[in-house]
């Protein structure tokens, strides 16, 4: 094991520092697993004087990231700086100079994965989705001989923590968010998480792997959780449901297209995903032969994400020694992503209505006009507090949206208090 493999690291933040720590702590085991020792060749950072959470030779630090990734003696590049640029240019430069690449960059892969995959190098990116949970490799390797029908998951720990606290304590969205920020689960600017951008990028990656088709973040229907109220959560709880921000990737019934969406939804408390608490992630995969599979664990954080990075590092190092590559991008199916309006789902609707005869009949007639069948309906309160709570059967999202617009025009409907999709019990 005399032939050392030299590793260049881009970024030394929360994840990068943990990667260095694990490489040092597990050096002997990693060498035994790979068949050659690893050596840290350099660490590219934006500022040299910043305090780091890990101790290593300061001579390894450089602000010349491009010079580092194109060095002749570097074999593998690990990218954990995130964002689109300069990450894209650096990864492509590394590949052009013959390096293998490990990245955790979900935003880049979701926006421009085609360009990155065309770079020509050995590319692994397990850490880009769901942190330490082994998920992407099972999709692109273990299930390569199967036909995936649906991927349904909780892929953002911040939003899951917020919704879990709202469900378990009755807290408002604002209070739950502040608690998540105080514990380090949410950023000072939580927009990427609470508005669903982070989950949408991950959904694009999952859909591309599951259905062998190119999917970008722009293809994903996205809704966040900022409009979820304590009343919504309490209403779901009373019906035996819990609200989760879900990433849902599914084949159409005819198998000719796929739907990819991220939005809050009510799921039965008996569903496996309902018990996913706090900042944990879980992804439910349904395949024709394998059946139902569930992947669960810590979806974020320095150490869990670094664990996934190290797993990929071992894989690319082994490939390099064997002069081979891992699976390339598989987009042979070329399935189109159909618009959200064609997605079939169910809906929970709460209406503030006038308390007088004939209200239910008018509402039911409107639903029927749009071919939306009502599964259950109940009235709560009287007088000014009268409210109708309706759960529909499955219908296209376009039909459900048209029904909501029709309800807003009815004189007997004072307001639509909430609209929530229902998933997981079909």
UniProtKB/TrEMBL annotation:
Its cofactor is a metal cation. Its EC number is 1.1.1.3. It comes from the Bacteria. One of its GO terms (molecular function) is homoserine dehydrogenase activity. Pathway: Amino-acid biosynthesis; L-methionine biosynthesis via de novo pathway; L-homoserine from L-aspartate: step 3/3; Amino-acid biosynthesis; L-threonine biosynthesis; L-threonine from L-aspartate: step 3/5. Residues 348-421 form the ACT domain. Keywords: Amino-acid biosynthesis, Methionine biosynthesis, NADP, Oxidoreductase, Sodium, Threonine biosynthesis. It catalyses: L-homoserine + NAD(+) = L-aspartate 4-semialdehyde + NADH + H(+); L-homoserine + NADP(+) = L-aspartate 4-semialdehyde + NADPH + H(+). Coiled coil: none annotated. PANTHER family: HOMOSERINE DEHYDROGENASE (PTHR43331:SF1). Belongs to the homoserine dehydrogenase family. Catalyzes the conversion of L-aspartate-beta-semialdehyde (L-Asa) to L-homoserine (L-Hse), the third step in the biosynthesis of threonine and methionine from aspartate. This is Homoserine dehydrogenase. It comes from Nonomuraea africana.
């Amino acid at each position: 094991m005399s032939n050392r493999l030299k590793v260049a690291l881009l970024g030394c933040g929360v994840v990068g520092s943990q990667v260095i720590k694990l490489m040092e702590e597990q050096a002997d085991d990693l060498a035994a697993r790979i068949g050659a020792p690893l050596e840290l060749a350099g660490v590219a950072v934006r500022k040299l004087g910043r305090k780091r959470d890990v101790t290593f030779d300061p001579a390894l630090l450089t602000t010349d990231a491009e010079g580092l990734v194109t060095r002749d003696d570097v074999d593998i590049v690990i990218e954990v700086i995130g964002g689109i640029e300069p990450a894209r240019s650096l990864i492509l430069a590394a590949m052009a100079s013959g390096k293998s690449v490990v990245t955790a960059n979900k935003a880049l892969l979701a926006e421009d994965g085609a360009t990155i995959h065309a770079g020509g190098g050995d590319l692994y990116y397990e850490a880009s989705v769901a942190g330490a949970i082994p998920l992407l490799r099972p999709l692109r390797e273990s299930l390569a001989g199967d036909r995936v029908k649906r991927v349904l998951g909780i892929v953002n720990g911040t939003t899951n923590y917020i919704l879990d606290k709202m469900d378990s304590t009755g807290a408002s969205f604002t209070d739950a968010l502040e608690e998540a920020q105080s514990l380090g689960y949410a950023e000072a600017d939580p927009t990427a998480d609470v508005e669903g951008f982070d989950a949408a990028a991950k959904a694009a990656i999952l859909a591309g792997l599951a259905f062998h088709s190119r999917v970008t973040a722009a293809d994903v229907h996205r809704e966040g959780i900022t409009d979820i109220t304590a009343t919504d959560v309490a209403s779901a709880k009373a019906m035996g449901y819990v609200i989760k921000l879900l990433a849902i990737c599914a084949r159409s019934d005819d198998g000719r297209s796929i739907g990819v969406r991220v939005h809050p939804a009510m799921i039965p408390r008996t569903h496996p995903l309902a018990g996913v608490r706090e900042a944990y992630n879980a992804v439910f995969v349904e395949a024709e032969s394998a059946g139902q599979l569930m992947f669960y664990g810590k979806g974020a954080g320095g150490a869990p994400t670094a664990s996934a990075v190290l797993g990929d590092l071992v894989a690319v190092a082994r490939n390099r020694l064997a002069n081979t590559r891992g699976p390339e991008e598989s987009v042979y199916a070329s399935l189109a992503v159909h618009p959200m309006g064609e997605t079939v789902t169910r809906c929970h609707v709460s209406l503030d209505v006038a308390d007088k005869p004939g209200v239910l009949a008018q509402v039911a007639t409107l639903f029927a006009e749009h071919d939306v069948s009502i599964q259950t309906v109940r009235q709560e309160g009287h007088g000014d507090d009268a409210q109708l709570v309706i759960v529909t059967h499955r219908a296209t999202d376009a039909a459900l949206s048209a029904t909501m617009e029709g309800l807003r025009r009815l004189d007997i409907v004072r307001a639509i208090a909430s609209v929530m999709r229902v998933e997981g019990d079909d």
